[in-house]
């Protein structure tokens, strides 16, 4: 997949404006195609990025206890309707052999994966798999809670409803106590 084609986006947006019965030459809409192309370049900037690359840099630290970064805000675009969904992500991992990563890299992994046409389930599993593969921790758990505008502003129209997805890898798959501890910490 190549770079974003701004001219093609601008033309497509002009066509959409016409297709909904508006005048793309009206003052308020005149620069809309350019604004949308700029926005798409930003919100889809994760398309050609691999979140695993964020975990190339690791640190050796004599630490093998739970690491949890919670309430990481994210915004993404539903690939089914091309409208936003947004929420919070929570990432927990249990380092193995003192292999830890920078905390900001966990947040960047969510952001990188979210910045492409996406499904919440895929963000959850992709981030968990990247951490699991690159850090080889005892366990990983990613929990995402999000509101989907495709459910709140159209279709069933249920504003405020949240979708929660989880991805669990390694020892957290079988250790119910650890899973409960993580979920309790997330809620607190």
UniProtKB/TrEMBL annotation:
InterPro entries: GTP-CH-I_C/QueF, GTP-CH-I_N, GTP_CycHdrlase_I, GTP_CycHdrlase_I_CS, GTP_CycHdrlase_I_dom. Belongs to the GTP cyclohydrolase I family. Its EC number is 3.5.4.16. It catalyses: GTP + H2O = 7,8-dihydroneopterin 3'-triphosphate + formate + H(+). HAMAP family: FolE (MF_00223). Keywords: GTP-binding, Hydrolase, Metal-binding, Nucleotide-binding, One-carbon metabolism, Zinc. One of its GO terms (molecular function) is GTP cyclohydrolase I activity. GO terms for biological process: one-carbon metabolic process; tetrahydrobiopterin biosynthetic process; tetrahydrofolate biosynthetic process. The gene is folE. GO terms for cellular component: cytoplasm. SUPFAM superfamilies: Tetrahydrobiopterin biosynthesis enzymes-like. Pfam families: GTP_cyclohydroI. Zn(2+) binds at residues 78, 81, 150. The keyword Nucleotide-binding applies. Homopolymer. Pathway: Cofactor biosynthesis; 7,8-dihydroneopterin triphosphate biosynthesis; 7,8-dihydroneopterin triphosphate from GTP: step 1/1. This is GTP cyclohydrolase 1.
